[in-house]
Model the fold of this input.
Amino acid sequence: MKYLLSAALGALLFTLAGCQTVPRDQVYSDDFRATYLTDVCKTEDVICDWDQISQVVSLRTDTKEATTLIDSNLVLIGEEQIQLDEPLRLKRGRIITTDEFRRKVIGELKKDAPTLVEKVQTVLIPKPKPAEPVITGNFRVRKLREVILDAGHGGKDPGAIGYAKSQEKDIVLDITNRLARILEDSGIKVHMTRKDDTFISLQERSAIASKTKADAFVSIHANASKQRGVSGVEVFSLRNLTPTEMNDIKRTKNRRIMMDHLVASRNDPNLDALVDEMMFAHKQGESFQLAQRIGEDMARSLKIRMRGTKTAGFYVLRNTLIPAVLVEVGFVTNPKEERLLQSSRYREKIARSIANSLIDYSKGK
Ligand SMILES: [Zn+2]
Done:
């Protein structure tokens, strides 16, 4: 009964979308034909810029400008909107693009571009601006300066309870405190929803998240199952939000920056909705990739089973516009894994693994 109760408490934090497969738009396949955006811009003679704060990607020719966000299927060229099947993605800190992007966006940008003869003429007539492609912006950015660490449960809420009576709230607090120390030592600023055994409501956790300037939210939990044989690590990222959830979202500074970038399209009455859509796509894509990285790194360094990267609708994440993941570090209901989780050496290993994933991610690796 205890296990059922703790499982129910664990489920309080997020409503799982079941064992659904990852939405198609989030599936990241390595086999689709991809090229780095910087290379495409160079060969196509287009100026590329990536704003590291707003994540806005802009491409310019002499006459036109295209704006989009990483992971967004929408590209704006002046008043025109282009829908993509496959958006721009980030892979280890570099923007990768597709044939479709090249065709639809770069093709459109270059439509009325000056011909070679016109170009030669402009070169012959001295002009202050060089005609050569210029790559501006930093394409390998630090994506993470501040992080919010959220140790699950606490106080009157023990979370999952193992066969040897270990409580989830204690295990995850210890791992989170270790993680905080490692991240701080590496120069990442850390905010914590709790540092000791106190009960923090989901509303409070959410409020803490929206008050900081953090670039990512990492929640640490331990898993429970009715079957004692079940083991391994699971990492969740934010799933697609329902329209109601979308309306809940508070406006953030990121959104304002995004709006400033789109000043040319201000006349569009649908701009608000468009920007929201782009921001969400971006946040979900980033969350998914971060979750995948943490899960894979943990499975490798701890030699444990990776149960997969799943998506969930976290309560605490709805009001933030930052990538967010929830790590289930192992099953306290599995006697072997519970024993491991009771060892401080193992908890330190978990903390180191998650920290390394975040540090690599912060460097855009
Ligand atoms: Zn939990």
